[in-house]
Every structure is written in structure tokens, then in C-alpha cells.
């Protein structure tokens, strides 16, 4: 089987690369009657003395012999499971039984002895048979990964401890193993028995009627009766077998007793065939059997290749696109830096403008959110500032009185409007500043948005990313007090001079003090000492407040009913809020949003585009460099794997 080793080794690399399941080479099982030479055939295929052979019932449990290839120069290397190491460190070949766990066998005589012991342990020592297999693994640089199955021989008559239905039991046991379609059946028949009634071929036909996976092996060519030969059989005239019929000469019992080596046996076999069957010598013998099996296995491997090839192509395409998504390694640092900065700045502005490539669908973002802040959050807050909030009628009255000085005034003086109005306008400053804060927050959030979605390349360079975030953040931070100051000023401007000639103030100007003679009479009648009462009406004439003026209201202790046509303070505050509603967003746009938008690119370039920083900023994240390398390696391995497969397709074993 050694001819397959290089091919299978190469394939192994391919499998390792693509993570495919290793091609399951067919397992090879021997069937035949007792003592026909099954164990001998398997053994000569492995090329090592390791199986108990002999006359009588020797193989009494199935032996599943798994050959595991290990690299010759590195026999201490892990075996296929990655767990086992050759602890002997002496031999390049060793064996392990499933039932003895991790025990290492380097002496093949000991292996054979253990097979015998284990057979007796389960099947007793009196020819009993068991269907419980013995599992043995042989690690060697001289084998391919292949499973061989040695089976008890077909028998008719029970002997020793064997049950009456021994024939049925053994047949079932054999069928169980050879019915696996991935099993090549070596149907072994001794040449000194009747080939035409071969039990081996009979049982093989049961599971493989077309003979697609049955190879007939004729043993004991050397033991034919004098005067007879196997010519007819070997020519395929007796029984036709699709895959062929191969005659072999194994070691006799005497050879075994004399410890004849496998190599000697093969040499003698060759000499025998040359002498007895010169015309057929090249197509018979153990070596030819091994080559035929090689060819069968190779066919099997080739059958698996197209699928493997497809898998490689699919994977290669996947890794190719993965690799290109990681971007090329940086060649021109300054160009890359400039490009990334520009890209980020553009994305940032686009997000504000609403022209970004990646549009958030889950929530408002960027310019849309700023708009929302202006119109909904800020606008609504202004509307909800209660014009009367914090103002009691006594405040109003007190303001009026304080503004009129010592004289009783028939008209509410302008200065008292202003006083009241100022107090109310102050209440609008807080939401205005809050509006600035919200927009600032959103501008900060856009940075995140841009780095998350739009400028994925930035993820490759965590330091540059950090630096960009820092520059934008500090630019925003710088603009915050400036914008706040402006908004504060806007409110102050509104306060600085209140135009009472404005139409909104028309009502206020019409304030009048009505001295109702009728009322005057009434009150005079009731009490001349009565405290003057102020009543306030809204512009529809509804009473909104009434207060008693302090006794010291004025020197002229007249009784008066002040009846302003409207509430001056109320009216005037609500006429100021639309003003701020318009101007505050404008200020925020100009001093914060547009300013940042316009200066972002130059700010970034100014701070980051410095030759001293290039190297540091464009250091790729280790993770990314690693991933790119892995993808590139994988791609290379896949290309190599593809080449290996092409080569294997061309490989001819001989
Ligand atoms: P199994 O029961 O089918 O596994 O047969 P074994 O491999 O144990 O062989 C049975 C006996 O036949 C052993 O003593 C072998 O030495 C002997 N034997 C097997 N093949 C040959 C052969 O080709 N020629 C000779 N002379 N003896 C053989
Ligand atoms: Mg046997």
C-alpha cells in the first residue's frame, strides 16, 4: 500500500486546508472458510507479522485493524487524533489496542500475543466465537490510513464450545461487516479446495451481487495436489469475478514456525509463480494483489476528488472576498491617511446633510435629528413655558405701583411691562441652552455613527480612529461655549429693548384705568376706609385676578379699579418666544453645526496630517493584520490544494 502514501499525504494536506472530512478510504475485509489463509493475506498486505495464524480456529473475533500513517522523519509526531504521542521514542512503528487504552506496543510479537489473549478473554479458550471486535491501531510511516478487517472463517460444523447454529452466527457476523458499501471484499479461497463452490464468493455475492467490490484471492497455490494446477481458475474460467482473481502463496505453517520473514516469503512466492505459472506470474502474487488494491483505492480517491475540488473553489472564492474586504496593506501612508480623513469628514457632513450612504432606519440620526431637536424638542418646550408661570397678580400690581412712583397712575407704565417681560424671558434661556446641548450631543453621536457604519476601513487603524474622534470631539467642545454665549446673547438682545410699539403690544398700550363712577359710589357708600381693590381682566374681559393693594398704595387714598384691557406681561412673553424660536436654531446652525461641518476637514488635516504621526496613526490593529495574514495564508493553501488535486488526477500508480 506504500504507493498510495504520497498521494494520501498530499490529500491530507488538502483536507487540513479545507477542513473537509478526510476521504474515507474503503475498508478491506477478508472472508473465507476457516484456515483458507485470510489472516495470512491481510498480514502480507500490511507487510508485518502481527496476526495470529495457524491451523484450526484461530481468528475467533473480528479484528478491526486501523492503519495510521505517521511521517517517517517524525514518528514521534502526534497521530491523527492529535493526542497520542509515541512514548517509546525508540520505534517508528507502534500499535495500540482500544481495550488496553494508552498502552503502547512496539513489539509486534507482543501485539499478536495480546490479540490471542483478548480473543480468549471474551471467546474462551475452546474455539468459541464472539462478534465483539478487537480494535487495533498500527502507527507507521509505511502504511496509508486504511482499515482492514480480519474475520473468523466460515464454518459448518460446530466444534468445542461453539453453539449449534455456529454457521448462521458466523455468516451474520461476516455479513454485518461486508455489507458496508464502502468495504472491499477479499474473498479468500484455498486453491486446494473446490473453487466452484467457494463459500467466500457465495457470501460475498450476497452483499455484492454484481461483484463491484469483490476481489477473489486464491491462496495455497503451492499446496495443490501433484498433477493439478490452478490455470483454469487463475484464467477466470471457473468463476468470473469482475475485479479479478489473484493467486498468492503465503507462508506455510512451517514457515511461520521458522519465523520466515515477509520479504523472504514474497521472494519465494515470486520464484514459485515464475516456475509454475510463467505466463501468469505478473498478474498474480502478493505484490500484484497489493497493487490491485492500491488501484482500487486510487479509483475511490479519484471519485471523491470532484467534490473536494468544488469545495476548494467555493472556499477560495470566499477567502478571496474576505481578503479584499480587509483592504490592501498600506503602501503610501500619507495618501492613505489623507484619504481616510477626507472620507470620514465627508461622511460626517453627509450624515448631517442626510446624504450619507448608510441611512439609519432604527432612529433619527444626524441632520434629521438636529431638525427634530429644533422643531420638536426646543419648539415645544418654548410653547410649554407657561406665560403666567411664576407671576402672580400681586407681582404685576407691585410692578405697576413701583413703576408709577408716588403718583397714582391711570395708565400702566411701559417700564413695568419691561420689568415683567424680562423676568419671563429669562425663563426661555434655559430651554435655549438645552437646545444647544442636545445638538452638541447629536454632533458627538454622529462621530460614532460614521465610524460604525460608514468608514469601516477606519477599524483597521484604531489609533487613527481614536485620533479622529479626539479631534472632532475637541472641535465640538471648542464650539460649545461660543454657541452658548451667542444664545445667551440672543436672549439678552430680546431683553435689551422691548419694542412696545410692536403690534403684539397693541393691547398692552390700550391699558386703561377705568374709574367707574358707579363702583366708586358703591364703595364710597360702604366704607370710606375700604382698601382699594385691583381687579385684572384678560382681554376678553374675564376676571383673572383680584388683589387688595397695600394700604400705603399712594398718598391719594382714592378707591380705584384698575382694569387693564389685557395682561401685558402675558401677551408680550408669548410674542417674544417665536423670536427666539427662530433665532436660536439659526445661531446653533451657524456657530456650531455649520462651523464644525466647514472646518472639520481642515481641522483634521491640520492636526493629524503630520509626517511624524503617520507611522503611529496607521498602525493596523494586530487583530486585523493577523486576520489578513490568515486569510492570505488560507487562500494560498487553497490554491496549492487545488494544484495538488489536479496532480492527483494525473497520477498513475504504475
Ligand atoms: P485463516 O484461518 O483463514 O485466517 O487462515 P490462516 O491465515 O490462519 O492460515 C491458516 C494456515 O494455512 C496457516 O498455518 C498458514 O500458514 C497456512 N497457509 C495460509 N496460506 C498459505 C499458503 O498460501 N500456502 C501454504 N503452504 N500455507 C498457507
Ligand atoms: Mg484467521
UniProtKB/TrEMBL annotation:
<keyword id="KW-0333">Golgi apparatus</keyword>
<dbReference type="GO" id="GO:0005741">
    <property type="term" value="C:mitochondrial outer membrane"/>
</dbReference>
<keyword id="KW-0446">Lipid-binding</keyword>
<dbReference type="InterPro" id="IPR020850">
    <property type="entry name" value="GED_dom"/>
</dbReference>
<dbReference type="InterPro" id="IPR027417">
    <property type="entry name" value="P-loop_NTPase"/>
</dbReference>
<keyword id="KW-1000">Mitochondrion outer membrane</keyword>
<keyword id="KW-0968">Cytoplasmic vesicle</keyword>
<dbReference type="GO" id="GO:0016559">
    <property type="term" value="P:peroxisome fission"/>
</dbReference>
<keyword id="KW-0576">Peroxisome</keyword>
<keyword id="KW-0770">Synapse</keyword>
<dbReference type="GO" id="GO:0005794">
    <property type="term" value="C:Golgi apparatus"/>
</dbReference>
<keyword id="KW-0963">Cytoplasm</keyword>
<dbReference type="GO" id="GO:0005829">
    <property type="term" value="C:cytosol"/>
</dbReference>
<dbReference type="GO" id="GO:0006897">
    <property type="term" value="P:endocytosis"/>
</dbReference>
<dbReference type="GO" id="GO:0048511">
    <property type="term" value="P:rhythmic process"/>
</dbReference>
<feature type="domain" description="Dynamin-type G">
    <location>
        <begin position="22"/>
        <end position="306"/>
    </location>
</feature>
<comment type="similarity">
    <text>Belongs to the TRAFAC class dynamin-like GTPase superfamily. Dynamin/Fzo/YdjA family.</text>
</comment>
<dbReference type="InterPro" id="IPR022812">
    <property type="entry name" value="Dynamin"/>
</dbReference>
<dbReference type="GO" id="GO:0003924">
    <property type="term" value="F:GTPase activity"/>
</dbReference>
<dbReference type="InterPro" id="IPR000375">
    <property type="entry name" value="Dynamin_stalk"/>
</dbReference>
<dbReference type="GO" id="GO:0005525">
    <property type="term" value="F:GTP binding"/>
</dbReference>
<dbReference type="Pfam" id="PF00350">
    <property type="entry name" value="Dynamin_N"/>
</dbReference>
<keyword id="KW-0168">Coated pit</keyword>
<dbReference type="GO" id="GO:0005905">
    <property type="term" value="C:clathrin-coated pit"/>
</dbReference>
<dbReference type="GO" id="GO:0000266">
    <property type="term" value="P:mitochondrial fission"/>
</dbReference>
<keyword id="KW-0472">Membrane</keyword>
<keyword id="KW-0496">Mitochondrion</keyword>
<dbReference type="GO" id="GO:0030672">
    <property type="term" value="C:synaptic vesicle membrane"/>
</dbReference>
<dbReference type="InterPro" id="IPR001401">
    <property type="entry name" value="Dynamin_GTPase"/>
</dbReference>
<dbReference type="GO" id="GO:0005874">
    <property type="term" value="C:microtubule"/>
</dbReference>
<dbReference type="InterPro" id="IPR003130">
    <property type="entry name" value="GED"/>
</dbReference>
<dbReference type="GO" id="GO:0048312">
    <property type="term" value="P:intracellular distribution of mitochondria"/>
</dbReference>
<dbReference type="GO" id="GO:0005777">
    <property type="term" value="C:peroxisome"/>
</dbReference>
<dbReference type="Pfam" id="PF01031">
    <property type="entry name" value="Dynamin_M"/>
</dbReference>
<keyword id="KW-0342">GTP-binding</keyword>
<keyword id="KW-0547">Nucleotide-binding</keyword>
<dbReference type="InterPro" id="IPR045063">
    <property type="entry name" value="Dynamin_N"/>
</dbReference>
<dbReference type="GO" id="GO:0008017">
    <property type="term" value="F:microtubule binding"/>
</dbReference>
<dbReference type="Pfam" id="PF02212">
    <property type="entry name" value="GED"/>
</dbReference>
<dbReference type="InterPro" id="IPR030381">
    <property type="entry name" value="G_DYNAMIN_dom"/>
</dbReference>
<feature type="domain" description="GED">
    <location>
        <begin position="558"/>
        <end position="653"/>
    </location>
</feature>
<dbReference type="GO" id="GO:0008289">
    <property type="term" value="F:lipid binding"/>
</dbReference>
